[in-house]
Write a structure and sequence with these properties.
The complex is a heterotrimer of chains A (515), B (335) and C (326). Chain B has 335 residues and is mainly alpha-helical. Helix content of chain B is 70%, strand content 1%. Chain B is built from 15 helices and 2 strands.
């Protein structure tokens, strides 16, 4: 199978227009890691190239090399056929390469026009910024993408989708030949994503070469003209989208055939452990009621920004509900701080691992024991041997890969960091564990391990809440699912009713009888 | 490096506890480097001046740093947690003024000590409440309270001074416990041990490191971040109160300009001791050695009749140098 | 227009005017034009330094060495003047600006090239600069009779009844207003301080931008060094001791965020003026000048609390959107 695939990708079509930008045999190493090894990539005018690969495949390193943030150790970058070297980000933007970054936040205190033209503003004869011309040109650029945004307002007064449009206008303003979009739809709503697709089509029509990085396969097949696959920092294959199947792409990505099989589970929920009644918050959510049983996995589905994480963070004591009660094991619990939630037996594995989950500067074992220090210490004094014992036990269960337990957590890969974060919460011996997008941004191998482990926990009688935006994950793992929309519970579905159509319809607010 | 694309989860592997032995880690640490600097300065000093290796001279020299060092211990914890307190010297002024006023009213040594400590705690609580309660940046808050606290001293005293402390009060700043071992030095040593235990051996200390590394992550791990920070401001205020007692007792008088500029010397000690000014790392032994380095430099140059202001050049160079040199070294190796 | 009225600057301006009105009610002499000029002139050094500090704070740094820079540059130009009394004032000004800029550039290089936290760098250079003054002067004072008349006369020379010192402050305000609003560097200050990560992707060099901020701060401190020494006709090690914190205070009161990226020239100006009015009003309303420190301390705390309150409360709003649609 693999051999065939490799042979197929080697016969690249020669009919394509000459590439605007080509990476040729690029190698980039960091202390101890080879991020890219001998990779190649071509971007053609008027085409969208999808860059596909697991986390750690080297996608973000390529973006940084293309935008002049990193310099390659070996290999050549060619722009319109001529080899170039980027000493700094300015050189890349002068060569017409621009990136719209994952978190498309620019500068809140500057105006829309200034954001679009920072670094290359039109000048007056005296060398000052020509504000009037800058605004006129910003207006024209925004008009060209149908964005109705006042060029004089400060960026901080805009929503995330509008900020995105500003970033795209900026890309157009430098007359970019190449636009890199790194996970551009991650924070956007369904409607905004459709608008983005339309915009990408328009950029294509203008002859721009687009590098599109995404984890979402439906998106790639919807928008891309060709693909390039990286694995472990190496080039695996490239070709037109028309000649590849989803299955073949996945196989190239992971180097083996993976059918997304979810672990089989015996579903026999026990007693009710968590009963939430009428939870409300002034701006975030309203009238949230649900119950959860031992050994059950309850899925929370919804669009990004539907208020799922906010409900869970209130349950965990990060924010406070204005109304409502939570009963744990039949007794009412007052939870005003995470410490109280932990004592009551509720733990929360946050979605944002970088800022909320992992404490990267601390060693692995100290991360694991942080919420359990009360148990690994005596009268407030640390007992290192106890800490190591606890850390060994739980990291062992999750099959952690690390050099040593006293290694700083930040040195591990994303998947292994996530294992440590989950181990940290299991070590508190909770009754309810809330996992917020537990497999987001981790490689497929780790993903399967996390799923398997979740099933194991439920089998042991732990009550699990899983927030997920991936329908297969909800369908494959959850016994029941609650769909949230705009801060409210839109539906609760279980058993035979669990289907992609029903989940999507409730999440998007499409009523059945609407014609 | 061979890349395995297929993981084998059932393969029996165990992650070892430690990568390097604790001893190996110690030998490469900042503290040991600093200790070598301290020894070098000690040796250089003993060659430079015949008066250096005199027990009483050395004992006198400790007064150069003991008061500041006691504040530096608490400040180290505060900086590791990601905050800072620039009002410490102003707290000394205010606490000293309060003690002076009390002494004027005929209150005895024990009462004065109590007043000094309570005043320090109150100032620390005020800082802590502003930072943790209102969520304000500590560097600005404490620049404000620095003016406010010392300002109150100026309002009370103007260009006057309090003198006439009760005789028994002099013990704290001028007394000796045994031979050349002063009361202040004993206090310094006791607090060094207490703070080292607090930071390195307790759950509280672990929370301080966690907060300094990632305050949001610490909160999500069930640490009461605001409470820990508030306690750290209290401790810093309290230690400023202790320093105020010692300094007032040693000088025997209070002016509103007392301990002027000490906040920066205390921060210098902490940073020199290897504490990351951005929070998250550092140790008490490092700070202890740094206080000795600064004390020895000041004392040694003093014996050579170098004026204090010139020594500050050395301290300034030391502060920048200790951080710059490892970075320059790393840059040179990369070339 | 309403946005302008609600801005921090407008509130601060209103506070200053209210303060002036309050004083004028009892002591009309205080708001006499000649006295207002005197107050402004007296506040000029603080204004000039606050402008430089603003640039630095905008880029998410802090410069604690400004007062030491001022004192060192002041001492150097005073010594230059005693050695060469006939040196024209223009040359003295050039030397002060250049030397100040070089001292600022030292801070900037350490922050840019070695990536040392600015507070540590400027804490260090602050003590080093003060020490250097002692080495240069041997701890001696340079007094009025050792300085030439043109040297000490320049800041006091009046044009249209306003001393040169005040004119220089006005010129500095206007110049910085143009630099901030209309030059790529000025805009880069906001970008670098507001979002350093995005700034790198935008092709801005964060370190170099910070370097220029330190250089501007240093040049203005050097300029003030000459003006200060000439105005008070004395130079010694400790002049303007502790003044760096008053400069930071002016910025904070002026609404410049210590976290970088937020602030304005108007804010720095008004923050300095607020402190200047308070300082000059105290003796007039017969409050001991010893109250000044406590008042400015309280003002800092109130200002920072106020700024924090006004920039807060834009949290996640999920429900409101729902209410709009239904």
């Amino acid at each position: 199978m693999l051999m065939q695939n490799a042979a197929a990708t080697d016969t690249r079509p020669r009919t394509a227009p000459a590439p605007v930008v080509a990476l040729d045999a690029i190698t980039k190493t960091f202390p101890g890691v080879t991020a890219l090894s001998d990779v190649s990539l071509e971007l053609h005018p008027g085409e969208v190239t999808a860059l596909v690969g697991e986390n750690g495949a080297g996608k973000s390193t390529v973006v940084k090399i293309l935008t002049g943030i990193y310099r390659p150790d070996h290999g050549t970058i060619r722009v319109n056929g001529a080899p170039v070297q980027f000493a700094a980000a300015q050189d890349a933007s002068r060569a017409g390469i621009t990136a719209i970054h994952q978190e498309t936040v620019l500068f809140d205190e500057l105006t829309v026009a200034e954001n679009i033209f920072i670094g290359h503003a039109p000048r007056t004869r005296a060398g000052l910024i020509n504000t009037r011309r800058m605004r006129t040109r910003a207006r024209a650029l925004l008009d060209s993408i149908d964005a109705e945004i006042d060029v004089g307002v400060r960026l901080r007064d805009l929503g995330i989708a509008s900020k995105h449009l500003v970033a795209i206008a900026r890309a157009l303003s430098i007359d970019a030949q190449v636009v890199i979009m790194d996970e551009p739809t991650a924070a956007l709503s369904h409607k905004e994503i459709q608008e983005l697709y339309a915009l990408v089509e328009r950029l294509k029509a203008q002859g721009k070469a687009i590098l599109f990085i995404s984890h979402k396969f439906d998106e790639i097949f919807r928008i891309a003209d060709r693909y390039t696959v990286f694995r472990d920092g190496r080039f695996v294959g490239a070709g037109p989208m028309a000649e590849v199947t989803e299955d073949a792409l996945v196989r190239m990505m992971v180097g083996r055939s993976v059918e997304t099989i979810f672990p089989a589970r015996a579903r026999k929920p026990g007693e009710i452990v968590l009963q939430v009644e009428g939870y409300s918050h002034p701006t975030e959510f309203e009238d949230i009621s649900f119950s959860l049983r031992e050994g059950e996995i309850l899925g929370f589905y919804g669009l990004v920004g539907a208020g799922r994480s906010e409900v869970m963070q209130a349950l965990f004591g990060i924010t406070r509900p204005s109304r409502g009660t939570a009963r744990i094991g039949g007794t009412a619990a007052t939870i005003r701080a995470p410490a109280q939630a932990i004592r009551a037996g509720i733990v929360y594995v946050p979605e944002d691992r970088g800022t909320q989950g992992a404490i990267r500067g601390l060693p692995i074992f100290q991360n694991v024991t942080l919420p359990s220090l009360r148990r690994t210490s005596r009268h407030g004094f640390l007992k290192l041997a106890e800490e190591f014992r606890l850390a060994r036990e739980y990291t062992g269960r999750l099959d952690l890969r690390a050099a040593a337990l006293d290694q700083a957590l930040g040195n591990l890969s994303g998947g292994n960091q996530q294992k440590v974060v989950i181990a940290k919460w299991l070590a508190t011996r909770p009754r309810v564990i809330i996992l917020d997008e537990p497999t987001k941004g981790i490689d497929i191998g780790s993903k399967a391990a996390v799923h398997e482990f979740m099933a194991e926990l439920a089998a042991e009688g732990l009550a699990v809440i899983m927030i997920s935006s991936e329908i297969p994950e909800i369908l494959g793992m959850a016994d029941r699912a609650i769909v949230m929309r705009e801060g409210r519970i839109a539906a609760e579905v279980a058993g035979g009713d669990l289907s992609p159509e029903i989940l999507v319809r409730h999440a998007a607010g499409i009523t059945q009888d609407a014609q | 490096m061979s890349t395995q694309s297929v993981p084998r989860p059932d393969e029996a592997r165990r992650v070892p506890d430690r990568l390097r032995s604790p001893l190996g880690r110690l030998l490469k640490s900042w503290e040991v480097l600093l200790l070598l600097v301290a020894v070098a300065i000690f040796v250089a000093n003993s060659f430079a001046s015949p008066y250096f290796l005199d027990a009483w001279n050395l004992s006198d020299a400790t007064f150069n740093f003991t008061e500041k060092a006691m504040i530096a211990f608490a400040m180290a914890l505060l900086i590791i947690s990601g905050e800072i307190d620039l009002s410490v010297a102003a707290i000394i002024a205010l606490a000293s003024t309060a003690m002076g006023a009390a002494a004027q009213a005929g209150i005895g040594p024990a009462g004065l000590v109590a007043i000094g400590l309570v005043c320090g705690l109150a100032c620390g609580a005020f800082n802590g409440a502003l930072v943790t309660g209102l969520g304000l940046p500590s560097i600005v808050v404490t620049i404000g309270t620095m003016s406010l606290f010392r300002g109150i001293s100026y309002i009370v005293l103007g260009d006057q001074a309090y003198r006439g402390y009760p005789p028994g009060f002099a013990w704290f700043g001028q007394g000796y416990v045994w031979w050349v071992i002063s009361v202040e030095f004993v206090l310094f040593a006791v607090f060094a041990v207490l703070f080292a235990i607090l930071l390195h051996k307790t759950n509280f200390g672990r929370a301080v490191y966690a907060i300094g590394n990632n305050p949001v992550g610490a909160l999500f791990s069930g640490i009461r971040v605001a409470r820990v920070k508030f306690i750290l401001f209290l401790l810093t205020g309290l230690m400023s109160g202790v320093a105020a007692i010692c300094l007032t007792s040693r000088l025997g008088s209070t002016r509103p300009s007392i301990a002027f500029g000490w906040e920066l010397e205390v921060v210098t000690m902490v940073v020199l001791g290897g504490v990351n000014i951005l929070g998250g790392s550092g140790s008490i032994p490092g700070v202890v050695i740094a206080t000795f380095v600064m004390g020895l430099v000041t004392f040694g140059l003093g014996l050579l009749n170098v004026p204090g202001i010139v020594m500050s050049i050395f301290i300034g160079l030391l502060l920048i140098g200790v951080i710059a040199l490892p970075r320059l070294w790393a840059m040179a190796r990369r070339e | 227009m309403t946005a302008l009225l609600k801005s921090r600057e407008a509130i601060l301006l209103a506070a200053i005017l209210a303060l002036l009105a309050l004083i004028a009610a009892r002591f009309p002499g205080f708001v006499a034009p000649s006295n207002l000029v005197r107050v402004f002139t007296d506040t000029s050094p603080l204004i000039i330094l606050a402008l430089g500090q603003m640039c630095v704070i905008l880029t998410r740094c802090i410069d604690l060495s400004v007062a030491a820079n001022l004192a060192l540059t002041g001492m150097v130009v005073a010594m230059l003047n005693t050695a060469a009394p006939d040196l024209p004032v223009a040359a003295t000004l050039a030397v002060a600006l250049a030397l100040g800029a070089v001292l600022g550039a030292i801070n900037g290089v350490l922050v840019w090239k070695l990536d040392i936290p600015p507070i540590v760098v400027t804490l260090g250079t602050m003590t080093i600069f003060r020490g250097l003054i002692f080495l240069l002067s041997n701890g001696k004072w340079i007094n009025a009779h050792e300085m030439s008349a043109s040297f000490t006369g320049f800041p006091r020379a009046e044009i249209l009844g306003v001393p040169m010192l005040a004119w220089i402050a006005i010129a500095a305000v206007l110049l910085l207003a143009v630099v901030i609003a209309r030059t790529p560097l000025g805009r880069a200050f906001y970008a670098v301080g507001g979002n350093p990560h995005a700034a790198v992707y935008t092709g801005l060099n964060v370190g170099r931008t910070q370097f220029f901020a330190f250089m501007i701060s240093g040049a203005l401190a050097g300029l003030t060094g000459y003006l200060w020494v000439a105005r008070y006709s004395v130079a010694y090690v400790d002049i303007a001791g502790g003044f760096e914190l008053e400069v930071v205070a002016a910025c904070v009161i002026g609404g410049i965020s210590i976290m970088g990226g937020i602030g304005s020239v108007g804010g720095a100006l008004l923050g300095a003026l607020f402190l200047g009015v308070v300082k000059n009003a105290l003796p007039v309303v017969d409050i001991s000048p010893f109250w000044q420190l406590a008042i400015s301390g309280s003002a800092i705390i109130i200002a920072v609390a106020f700024n924090a309150q006004s920039s807060r409360g834009r949290g996640r709003v999920i429900l409101r959107r729902a209410e709009h649609r239904t």
